[in-house]
Design brief:
The chain is of the alpha/beta class. Helix content is 40%, strand content 20%. The protein is built from 21 helices and 18 strands. The chain has a 5-stranded mixed sheet with strand order 3-2-5-6-4. A 5-stranded parallel sheet has the order 8-11-14-7-15. The radius of gyration is 24 Å and the shape is globular.
Length: 500
């Protein structure tokens, strides 16, 4: 059975026909991959064909651009119409008043300008409290100042009564973007039907890449290493790569659960917590935060950001003023690399061009592993998917759910033999990366005996060791205190009742 046929047989409705090599139709629409695949699932027939005119009409009606916002406000506020469209929504519950409001960050609509009335909140709160930003179909209307005054006429001097004098955009209804239930157990069962080589190709297709365009397994696996923070909480990585290898695309367009920040200014308030606005930052609402083009990022206060990063990368906690927070997002640094440094294959100082905040060994040590992005080919048409592949929106939702599954770490703990005196940070880094590989490549494994020693060593432990070893070597170049310190020699435990 061909891979595409097996894929459709095992995953049924979660497979879509993608042809990014042949057409630039979706490129012209400037849609992220997860939204594109949602549309394909909605409009494609069983042969992978769709009516472009019908799809274009839907996009024009329900997926507005930022430039359309004034026209939308005019319909809602001035003309008194209800407007429905797809958007990313954040919610806020005011502790003092009990009032619930929402924001549409992509359109600049803030919490002070909106309200979710209690009856509407009761119908959609289960979806809206699931995360920091939730994609869905919103229906908006207008609540005039007169409407507020009528409801709160019995209140005289409360802040809620004062707020009632202002008109607000109200949420009338909300429907979650995900049109189906995510069944992780079914996904795990389906994985059993594929060989490791086949599954690697399936994963590449899920994130829009054509497996046949790669020259070696190493190129494929290095590419897939970028997905590790999608499946494992607080996995912190550094990647340096030549231009044009797709870093921005994968971290910024494939998953709706991550955040990509490219260049510009980054502050502790934006990253962690804004004291003036009493608002949590990017780190609390995302599965991962990628600082792309990191050489061009400037920090408002280097010492402040360095201290906040060190605390967070160590244990997931952060403190800003009197606010103490906890988050589970991985932090990924992505930057370009000069050819002479790339040719040294990790044996020259690769961090010299990073911002000053990252020139401290104690901070770099807290990053778990390094991705050698020069092992990933520059993007070309042969690498663009064309054929049946897993729906990116479905796949990334599965990855998001797998983050909460601790059974894989238990398996890694049982399989990996840690030598006496091993450095705690090295051990944690290797185990965390190995766990992510296990989730990604062998999601069907539920017991240590479900995977062969050879495959676990080759695809999980050895790759984790190499990723950590690069960090370890670079630490020695940054700080003489780390020079010459080798990575612990981790072993693998054999089980008598192993199935392989």
């Amino acid at each position: 059975m061909e891979l595409s046929e097996k894929l459709r047989d095992c995953f049924d409705e979660m497979v879509v026909y993608k042809d990014l090599k042949k057409t630039n139709f979706f490129s012209a629409l400037s849609l992220p991959a997860f939204m594109r695949d949602w549309l394909l699932k909605k409009f494609e027939n069983d042969e992978g064909e769709f009516d472009k005119d019908e799809l274009s009409r839907f996009v024009k009606k329900f997926i507005p651009r930022k430039d359309d916002w004034n026209a939308i406000k005019n319909k809602i506020v001035v003309e008194g119409e209800r407007v429905k469209f797809l958007a990313k929504v954040s919610v806020n519950i005011d502790i003092k008043t009990g009032e619930v409001s929402f924001a549409l960050p992509d359109f600049g609509l803030g919490f002070k300008e909106t309200i979710i009335e209690s009856d509407v909140w009761d119908t959609c709160k289960e979806d809206l409290v699931k995360g920091h930003d939730i994609w869905g179909m919103v229906e908006l209307g207008y609540r005039s100042p007169d409407d507020f005054d009528m409801e709160f006429e019995y209140e005289t001097k409360s802040s809620r009564a004062k707020n009632s004098k202002e008109g607000k955009i109200k949420l009338i209804s909300f429907k979650n973007f995900c049109p189906y239930n995510i069944d992780v157990e079914e996904y795990k069962e389906a994985r059993k039907e594929f060989t490791t080589d086949e599954w690697i190709n399936v994963l590449l297709g899920a994130v829009d890449y054509n497996a046949d365009g790669y020259k070696s397994e190493e190129e494929k696996l290095t590419m897939l290493t970028r997905l590790l923070p999608f499946v494992e909480k607080r996995l912190n990585l550094i990647e340096l790569a030549p231009k044009g290898t797709g870093k921005s695309y994968l971290f910024g367009n494939v998953s709706r659960y991550g955040w990509l920040s490219s260049g510009g200014i980054m502050s502790r308030a934006k990253m962690f917590y804004d004291q003036s606005k009493r608002k949590e930052g990017l780190i609390t609402g995302s599965d991962f935060v990628t600082l792309d083009e990191v050489q061009t990022i400037s920090f408002t206060d280097t010492d402040e950001m360095r201290a906040a990063l060190k605390g967070y990368l160590e244990n997931g906690n952060f403190t800003v003023g009197d606010y103490k927070g906890i988050a589970f997002a991985g932090v990924i640094l992505c930057g370009n690399i000069r050819k002479e440094i790339m040719d040294a294959d990790g044996y020259s100082n690769m961090f010299t061009e990073l911002p000053e905040v990252f020139h401290e060994s104690a901070l770099i040590e807290r990053f778990h592993g390094f991705i050698k992005g020069w092992n990933i080919p520059r993007m070309n048409d042969d690498l663009k998917v064309h054929g049946w592949a897993l729906n990116s929106e479905y796949f990334c939702s599965i990855m998001h759910e797998l983050r909460d599954d601790s059974s894989y770490r238990s398996i890694v703990d049982e399989l990996v033999i840690v030598p006496d005196g091993a450095d705690t940070r090295d051990t944690e880094a290797v185990k965390r990366i190995a766990t992510a590989y296990l989730k990604l490549l062998f999601s069907h494994v539920q017991e240590p005996t479900d995977i062969s020693t050879r495959e676990f060593k080759r695809y999980c432990l050895d790759r984790a060791r190499r990723m950590r070893d690069t960090i370890k070597y670079q630490l020695g170049l940054l700080d003489v205190e780390y020079a010459g310190k080798d990575l612990p020699n981790f072993g693998i435990r054999e089980f008598d009742d192993a199935k392989y």
